[in-house]
Design a protein that fits this description.
This protein is of the alpha+beta class. Helices cover 68% and strands 12% of the residues. The protein has a domain of 147 residues: PAS domain (Beta-Lactamase).
Length: 294
């Protein structure tokens, strides 16, 4: 036998004797709610995060494609001012865009969103679109957290490439907010389940306590006790059986008392008749003696 089995064999009966039935029922309900709530929270967290990541990627690709479509003419005409304004407008309208820069078909940086410094060589050469690809997504970790670098060709790569970085921090903040709301809902459901479990336990415990009190009263020869029927289930049937038993025991006791009284009366009468019969011969003898003068 394993150690856990031995421990349960030893502690099980002790805990069963210590913990009342109300606590057992409430504990089972609370345990089920905790297990179910934990599974729902874990499942919702993973599912929500996955969906938000997918939406973030799709949104980043959509923004990069829009910038690429609007960059065709400025890139072909080398209109740096128009490209710079396009970059600034994109950043202002999309707060989750970490950076944006545009490369020509030779890989040189035409415009970028980095203030005070240019695009690092590692970032510039990090992600490239191969021939025939509509876009390429490459995530990496930075001081901003996880960033999804998206490369989209401009005019099939003949006019350059748009490079856009989508930061994950905003998505994670939204996911945390959603999970916080769900945790609050689970906490409310947990409290409601505790109250409901307590009330359901009372529906069983209160009649049992009354049955215990009634049983003790019957044990002290009080057959007039009756227990109120709370429900129509098995506990209610047990209550009816107890009341019927108490009624029959009371009737049986009354019959016994009546029969005992009759027997006692008959014994008393019998004793009286026996005394009269015993005195009768003595009286007759005395009468005869007086008649003969002896």
């Amino acid at each position: 036998m394993a150690v856990s089995d031995r421990l349960m064999c030893r502690l099980g009966p002790r805990l069963s004797n210590i913990i009342g039935i109300r606590a057992k029922i409430s504990g089972i309900a609370i345990l089920l709610v905790l297990l179910l709530g934990s599974w729902i929270a874990w499942r919702s967290d993973s599912t929500t995060t996955g969906i938000l990541k997918q939406q973030l990627e799709m949104r980043g690709v959509s923004i990069a494609r829009d910038v690429a479509a609007r960059s065709v003419d400025p890139a072909l005409t080398n209109n740096i001012f128009e490209l710079f304004r396009l970059v600034q407008d994109t950043l202002e309208n999309n707060t989750d865009v970490a950076y944006l820069f545009i490369q020509d078909n030779a890989g040189n940086i035409m415009v970028h969103s980095f203030l005070g410094h240019g695009v690092s060589t590692g970032l510039r050469d990090f992600n490239h679109v191969s021939g025939g690809e509509r876009y390429r997504l490459a995530p990496f970790r930075s001081e901003l957290g996880v960033v999804y670098d998206i490369a989209v060709p401009i005019f099939e790569g003949r006019a350059g490439t748009v490079r856009l970085g989508m930061q994950e921090s905003g998505m994670l903040a939204a996911a945390r907010q959603m999970m916080l709301s769900m945790y609050i809902s689970l906490a409310v459901a947990f409290i409601i389940s505790i109250v409901a479990a307590y009330m359901m336990a009372n529906l069983l415990v209160v009649p049992l306590h009354q049955l215990i009190a009634g049983t003790r009263a019957v044990a002290e020869s009080d057959f007039s006790v009756r227990v109120r029927r709370w429900t129509k289930d098995e506990v209610g049937q047990l209550t009816d059986a107890f009341n019927l038993m108490a009624e029959k025991l009371g009737a049986y006791r009354e019959e016994n008392l009546a029969a005992t009284a009759v027997q006692m009366h008959e014994i008393s009468v019998s004793k009286s008749l026996t005394g009269i019969i015993c005195l009768l011969p003595l009286s007759v003898t005395q009468t005869k003696n007086k008649g003969t003068g002896k």
